[in-house]
């Protein structure tokens, strides 16, 4: 906290920085390099969690992502209550600050069952990134007990209608919440496919109605 105060921030906790930025118009950006430098050095999970939440800011894309990925990988003590809290906040922050260059690293974490429930929000980070492996990873997550509902949700929200056949089997789930989610997802996919078809049709109409170029007309006249 002393280093933050030296940088001009009047704070009693890191969380106050988010409040000051949101309600008082304080510019938090000068604090970010300090927080990123300190995060790997800290041991108390409460403060690490607070910093991870504070680093969830679009101005930090993509510079904060490597620091947050490293934080997610840190060992935790399962006997200490709340020791996995930073991982939940890191996963949420990565949804904001990661870019396509971090896709493989995030996918590796999301697909690793050793990280348990905290990796759930990573599905949203992966779905946001337009990466060639996005569909492959989301389909793989459908086989994961922790992640499949989130994969279904993101397939629907992103309108990935070409993955519909991967979602349909979950409509037979014994869990009514999953059946409800699948129904909503299939509705979204139908709308996305209809919109894509409409856009394709409009593009074809525009192309067909576009006047022929002068060169094309001249070529036709020369041929006659």
Structure description:
With 224 residues, the protein is mainly alpha-helical. It contains 13 helices and no strands. The protein has helices at 2-6, 15-23, 32-38, 45-54, 65-73, 85-97, 103-110, 122-128, 134-141, 148-157, 164-167, 176-209, 214-223. Helix 5 packs antiparallel against helix 6 (85-97). The protein is globular and about 65 Å long. The protein starts with a helix and ends with a helix. The model has no long low-confidence stretch (mean pLDDT 92).
Question: Would you kindly provide a brief summary of this structure?
Answer:
Helices cover 60% and strands 0% of the residues. By secondary structure, it is mainly α.
Mean pLDDT: 92
Distance between the termini: 83 Å
Strand percent estimate: under 5%
* Structure class: mainly alpha
Shape: globular
Instruction: Indicate the percent of residues in helices.
Output: 55-70%
Number of strands: 0
What is the succession of H and E elements? Answer: HHHHHHHHHHHHH
Biggest sheet, in brief?
none
Number of helices: 13
Instruction: Work out the radius of gyration.
Output: 24 Å
Residue stretches low in confidence (pLDDT < 50, at least 5 long) are: none
What characteristics describe this protein?
single chain; 224 residues; mainly alpha; 60% helix
Task: Provide the fold topology.
Blueprint: H1 2-6, H2 15-23, H3 32-38, H4 45-54, H5 65-73, H6 85-97, H7 103-110, H8 122-128, H9 134-141, H10 148-157, H11 164-167, H12 176-209, H13 214-223
Helix pairs in contact: 4-6, 5-6, 6-8, 7-8, 9-10, 10-12
């Amino acid at each position: 906290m002393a280093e933050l105060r030296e940088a001009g921030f009047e704070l009693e906790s890191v969380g106050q920085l988010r409040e000051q930025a949101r309600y008082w118009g304080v510019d938090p950006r000068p604090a970010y390099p300090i927080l990123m430098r300190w995060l790997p050095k800290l041991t108390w999970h409460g403060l690490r969690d607070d910093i991870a939440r504070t680093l969830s800011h679009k101005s930090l894309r993509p510079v904060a992502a490597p620091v947050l990925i490293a934080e997610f990988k840190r060992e935790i003590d399962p006997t200490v209550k709340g020791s996995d809290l930073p991982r939940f906040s890191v996963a949420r922050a990565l949804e904001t600050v990661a870019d396509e260059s971090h896709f493989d690293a995030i996918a590796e974490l999301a697909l690793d069952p050793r990280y348990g429930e905290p990796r759930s929000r990573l599905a949203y980070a992966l779905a946001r990134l337009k990466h060639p492996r996005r569909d492959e990873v989301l389909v793989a997550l459908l086989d994961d007990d922790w992640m499949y509902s989130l994969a279904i949700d993101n397939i629907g929200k992103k309108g990935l209608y070409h993955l519909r056949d991967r979602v349909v089997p979950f409509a037979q789930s014994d869990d009514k919440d999953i059946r409800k989610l699948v129904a909503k997802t299939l509705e979204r996919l139908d709308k996305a496919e209809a919109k894509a078809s409409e856009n394709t049709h409009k593009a074809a109409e525009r192309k067909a109605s576009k006047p022929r170029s002068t060169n094309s007309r001249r070529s036709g006249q020369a041929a006659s």
